[in-house]
């Protein structure tokens, strides 16, 4: 049986950009992308959750996704900042 996955979608192109094992990992990736491309980048993104049966549901998109990503932040950058402090 397949595990639950979290997919980041580009709504403009209707393509899956990446698949993650956890919501936190997906949100961290979105946070990094927004940090690199700017907050407007999130307006064309959606986070979907696919369960073990292959059923998908929307978790968040656009501004709501940006808010969730900002709440999680980017643990990789945070760890790098702590290491250099």
Describe this structure in words.
The chain has three helices and four strands, in the order ββαββαα. By secondary structure, it is an alpha+beta fold. It has one domain (5-75). The protein is globular. The relative contact order is 0.20. Residues 77-85 have low confidence and may be disordered.
Rg calc: 13 Å
Distance between the termini: 44 Å
Low-confidence stretches: 77-85
What's the number of helices?
A: 3
Q: How much of the sequence is in beta strands?
A: 25-35%
Largest beta-sheet details: 4 strands, antiparallel
Spatial order of strands in the largest sheet? 2-1-3-4
Can you tell me the number of structural domains? 1
Please give the share of residues in helix.
40-55%
The residue-averaged pLDDT reads: 87
Give the overall shape, derived from the CA principal axes.
globular
Q: Give a count of the beta strands, DSSP E runs of length 2 or more.
A: 4
Classification by helices and strands: alpha+beta
Helices and strands, in order, run as EEHEEHH
Quickly describe the structure:
With 85 residues, the protein is an alpha+beta fold.
Descriptive key words:
single chain, 85 residues, alpha+beta, 4-stranded antiparallel beta sheet, 4 strands, 28% strand, disordered C terminus
């Amino acid at each position: 049986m397949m595990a639950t996955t979290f997919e980041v979608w580009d709504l403009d192109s209707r393509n899956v950009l990446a698949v993650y094992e956890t919501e936190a990992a997906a949100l961290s990736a979105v946070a990094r992308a927004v940090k690199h491309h700017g907050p407007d980048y999130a307006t064309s993104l959606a986070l979907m959750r696919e369960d073990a049966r292959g059923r998908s549901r929307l978790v968040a998109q656009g501004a709501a996704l940006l808010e969730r990503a900002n709440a999680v932040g980017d643990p990789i950058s945070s760890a790098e900042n702590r290491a250099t402090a």
